[in-house]
Structure formats: C-alpha cells, structure tokens
Design goal:
Layout: E1 4-10, H1 22-34, E2 36-46, E3 55-59, E4 62-70, H2 71-90, H3 101-121, E5 127-131, H4 138-144, E6 150-154, H5 162-165, H6 171-178, E7 183-186, H7 189-201, E8 206-208, E9 211-214, E10 217-223, H8 230-237, H9 242-254, E11 257-264, H10 271-284, E12 292-299, H11 306-326, E13 334-338, H12 343-351, E14 355-358, H13 367-375, E15 383-387, E16 400-402, H14 407-418, H15 422-438, H16 441-454
Parallel strand pairs: 1-2, 1-5, 2-4, 5-6, 6-7, 7-10, 11-12, 11-14, 12-13, 14-15, 15-16
Antiparallel strand pairs: 3-4, 8-9, 9-10
The structure holds adenosine-5'-diphosphate and 6-O-phosphono-alpha-D-glucopyranose (G6P).
Organism: Chelativorans composti
Pfam family, one: Glyco_transf_20
InterPro entries: Glyco_trans_20, Trehalose_OtsA
C-alpha cells in the first residue's frame, strides 16, 4: 500500500478531543485507521518568512507535518481569499463576498508555499489527498514543480451552481486548477452536478459518465459523502460525566425536554433563524413553555472576519431577548454557550437531548447531524430535525426535513419531534443509523482511495 499524504489548511491535534470542524473530525477519524502523513498550517503567524521544510511530529501511525504562515499570508490567503471570497461564494452568499486582488495573490503565493513544503517530504510512491477550498491550486503548483504522484481533491463545502461561481473574478482559472487533480470528490450529487455543468458549459470539456476529458487527460469526478466513526461516537455517548447525569436527572423529574444545537458560530449555520423558530414554537404551542429548553453550543470561529462578529452580536441579542420574554425563576428557555466542548461531553449531551436541531442555510455535509444519530439509544431515541440545505439531507431522509428560512415550518417540525410516538422514533432511528453505518468514515476513505489508487471510475 502506498503512503498516504494528506494536505489541508489546518491539521487536527489527534490527541485533543475538543476540536470543531468537519474536516478535522472526518480526516482525523480516517487517518487514524490507515496511517500516513498530514501536512498543514501550524496556526502560527510570523513576522518573517521561514524555510519550506515542515516540522514533523509523530502521533501513533500518523506523522503531523506543519508549516507556519506569515501575518500577511494569514490576512490575504486565510481571512481574505479563503474566508471572505470562496467560503461565502461556495455557500451561495454573494452578498458577503469581499474580493480584493491582493487576496488572490496571497492565495496563489501560499499554495506555492504548501507545494514547496510538500516537495521536501514527498516520496516517489506516495499518493496525495488534498482537502478543501483553501488549496484548490495546489495540484497545479505541485505539477509545475515536477510532481508526478497521483493527486486527489475533496471539497468539504458545497460547490455552487455555475451562475453563482461566475460572479467571482478568475473563476475559470479556479476550475481549471481543479482539473489538474486525478480525482475530484464532492459531498453530494448536487455539488457534483454543479461542477459537471460548469466544465461542460464553460470549459467545453467532454464527459463520459463521471469522467471528465480535458485535452489529453482524464479526471474522475465523484460523490463521496463524508462519514463518522459511528461506534466510537456511540460509545462516548454512553459515558455521561457527572454534570450531565445530574442535569438529566433534574430534567426527568421535572419532565422537561431538551433541544440541542451544536455548531461553529458561522453565518451559514442558520443560528438566528433557529432561535426564532424556537421562539415560534413557544408562541404556536404554549404547552411547551416551561417544559422544553434549547441548548445551543457555538464554537468561536474566524472572528476577525466582520460577518462573523456580526452574527455573534445578533445571536447574543436574540437569545437575551427570548430569555427576557419567557424565562421564569426556575426555567431558562435558551441556554447559549460560546465555546468548544470536549467531544465525549458533546456525545453524551446529544444522547440525553430529545431533539437534534440542525438547520444550516447551506452546508457541505454537516457531521453534527450524523453524530446526533450515532449518539441515540435504540430504547428511547431522539428525533433529528434537519435542514434540506445540509448535504446530509441527501442521505438522512428519515429525519424531519425542514426549510431553514421558514420559522413556522421549523416550529411545526419541533412540535412534531417533541410529541412523536416511541414507535415512530425507533423506526426513523433504525433507518438513520443504518445509513450512517453504511457510509461511515472508513467507507469514505476506502471509496475515495479506490478511485485514486486504482483509478476506478465512480459509478454515475
Ligand atoms: P463544519 O465543518 O462546518 O464546522 P460539521 O457539522 O460538518 O460543520 O462539523 C463540525 C464538527 O465540529 C463536528 O464534529 C462537531 O461535533 C464539532 N463541533 C462543532 N461545534 C462544536 C463545539 N461547540 N464544541 C465541540 N465540537 C464542536
Ligand atoms: C469547515 C471547513 C474546514 C475548516 C473548518 C474550521 O469544516 O470545511 O476546512 O477547517 O470549517 O474552520 P477554520 O477556519 O477554523 O479552519
């Protein structure tokens, strides 16, 4: 078996259990099983340039290779092109795109840095798997430096329709960069279809099934929905710490139910709309007043980008307003926490919550939805309420699927979830758990590697 070299903007500390972000969790779960090298940014912002050799740290079967960036790289490549241009654009939020030509220059420069660092550690038989929107030009940069190894790319976030993509300068260049990979993978069939339309209409490429012909080369495109390590998460969920046990006991005695939301505090996650939907539940179905609470855990993320600071202020005002209106001496309707929680505590909280409320306005996959399902007990499972705009909705069809822009629709679904019979909850849970087991972290790694190592076309 070839050595697997994974590259992403950020690497995950595999020993730290409190890490937010689907990429870190999904890649971490997969790489632990296969072993290999994982190269990425070390999180530092230096005032000066450093030589390209990465720093290597061994963590069991995985070698973490990290490089620092400069403050200018951080501003232009990370905050700038990656998170103020590509992130909003790919999540269909043209109103939030803030394009500057120096961002694009920084993006190209840092992709060059990643290529230089990789070239110092690559071995001839390595197979390279590059992740996410920060590193779209990396295959082109590597090929320019003479790299001939097989290279795959996986996009963790949505790929937008051609009309949206065309709003950003140099969009053709971006997609041509993608075609320098051997395999390009997406979370959903919608994303895959969007890319295929773009390359056929705008670049005039020929398609045969999922194979894209570009000049002399053939590029395999496919849909590989990311999954989680279901057993590991389910086991964590069965070991609640003392705090969770006491709180759950208290709620049982008081016959109170809990709705849970867990996200990075990102404007794509639909958090204000979610809070409004919870308020609407209390308005439309007053029987839930004092009997149901919403716990929302939101991890700080990309706080230097203005849109993130705005969404934080909005959420804090909204949770304060709902509590001001409804709270009583012994009941707080919204418990809002702005922090990262250890994974095992999260798993246990999912298990004791009657509703998993996952309502992004647009999301590549959304692993929280899969984690909520993995954490449930078959004896008394909770109900997943899921946005139709999460990639996960393509698979998790037995969830209650909602429109995250429609607070009445979400309030009705919450009420239905809170009053659903045990039999229906069990039926839905069985179907959902079967689906997340079928396409878990291991399946994701194996199916992508099969396409990349054996160049097996993915069925259309
Ligand atoms: P994204 O990749 O956009 O952040 P996902 O739902 O796919 O969205 O992945 C988020 C991951 O981060 C999940 O594994 C989730 O459990 C974790 N996570 C999100 N928020 C928190 C938090 N507040 N504390 C701990 N982990 C979190
Ligand atoms: C999403 C993206 C990842 C990113 C993560 C956390 O999951 O797909 O690429 O790493 O969010 O965001 P951050 O900007 O902190 O790396």
């Amino acid at each position: 078996m070839s050595r697997l070299v994974i590259v992403s903007n950020r690497v995950a500390d595999l020993t730290n259990t409190a890490q937010a972000g689907g990429l870190a969790v999904g890649v971490g779960d997969s790489l632990r099983q296969r072993g290999g090298v994982w190269l990425g940014w070390d999180g530092q912002r230096l005032k000066y340039e450093e030589p390209p050799e990465p720093r290597i740290r061994k963590m069991g079967p995985v070698s973490l290779a990290t490089i620092p960036l400069t403050q200018q790289d951080y501003d232009e490549y990370y905050l700038g092109f990656s998170n103020s241009v590509l992130w909003p654009l790919f999540h269909y939020r043209l109103d939030l795109v803030d394009y500057k030509s120096e961002f694009l220059e920084g993006y190209r420069r840092v992709n060059g840095k990643f290529a230089d660092a990789l070239m110092t550690i690559l071995q001839p038989d390595d197979v390279i798997w590059i992740h996410d929107y920060h590193l779209i030009p990396l295959a082109s940069e590597l090929r320019r430096r003479g790299c001939t190894q097989r290279m795959g790319f996986f996009l963790h976030i949505p790929f937008p329709p051609p009309e949206i993509l065309a709003a950003v300068p140099r969009h053709k260049w971006l997609v041509e960069c993608l075609l320098d990979f051997d395999v390009i993978g997406f979370q959903t069939n919608t994303d895959l279809g969007n890319l295929q339309h773009y390359v056929a209409d705008q670049l005039g490429c020929e398609m045969s099934g999922n194979v894209i012909r570009t000049g002399e080369r053939e590029v395999i495109s496919g849909c590989f929905p990311i999954g989680i390590d279901v057993d590991a998460f389910s086991q964590m969920a069965q070991r609640p710490n003392e705090e969770v046990q006491i709180e759950t006991h208290r709620r049982r005695v008081l016959r109170r139910k809990q709705i849970i939301g867990v996200d990075r505090l990102d404007y794509t996650k639909g958090l204000p709309d979610r809070l409004r939907a919870f308020e609407r539940l209390l308005e439309l179905y007053p029987e839930h007043v004092k009997n149901v609470a919403l716990i929302q855990i939101a991890t700080p993320t990309r706080e230097e980008v203005e849109a993130y600071a705005d969404i934080r202020r909005e959420l804090e005002a909204l949770s304060g307003a709902i509590n001001g209106r409804y709270a009583d001496f012994n009941w707080t309707p919204v418990r809002y926490m702005y922090r990262t929680v250890p994974r095992d505590a999260l798993a246990a909280l999912f298990r004791v919550s009657q509703v998993g409320f996952v309502t992004p306005l647009r999301d590549g996959m959304n692993l929280v939805a899969k984690e909520y399902v993995a954490a449930q007990s078959m004896d008394d499972p909770g109900v997943l309420v899921l946005s139709k705009f999460a990639g996960a909705a393509e698979e998790l069809r037995e969830a209650l699927i909602v429109n995250p822009y429609d607070s009445d629709d979400m309030a009705r679904a919450l009420n239905r979830a809170l009053t659903m019979s045990l039999e229906e909850r069990q039926e839905r849970q069985q179907a959902l758990i079967d689906r997340i087991r079928e396409k878990d972290a291991n399946w994701w790694l194996k199916s992508f590697m099969d396409a990349l190592e054996n160049r097996n076309p993915v069925p259309a």
